[in-house]
Amino acid sequence: MILVHATSVEIDGQGVLIRGPSGSGKSDLALRLMDGGAQLIADDQTELSRQGSRVVARAPETIAGLLEVRGLGIVRVTHRSWAPLALVVDLTSDERIERLPEPSYAEYLGLTLPRMELDPFRASASAKVRLAVHSAKRDIMPS
Description:
InterPro entries: Hpr_kin/Pase_C, P-loop_NTPase. Keywords: Kinase, Serine/threonine-protein kinase, Transferase. By secondary structure, this protein is of the alpha+beta class. It has 2 helices and 11 strands; from the N terminus they run E-E-E-H-E-E-E-E-E-E-E-E-H.
């Protein structure tokens, strides 16, 4: 098990790990995804473990169900206890993102996961994450 500085959510049974420095918009993006039906797994710190051929995300027990919302403080929300990761999202500014990027990957616990860069404050950010999760799920699913 490893602990990473990242927020994680579950979308349609698939985990999304959102990475970025403090103040980069991890919790804000998670909140917008949750507004569209996603569920929080962990905010700011996520435990990752390997289960066979997948990486599983969980919240550390002390922060399970807690989300920091700028302007409101720390609030208790409905959450999932765990989900297998399908996507890693690295937050960055829009001008640093390639228009047509080559496929990118992140590695955790000896396994490779699809990765994308995203400006979390773009209006389309949550839609892009959902599209990427569904694309990754389709690519992983057996034919």
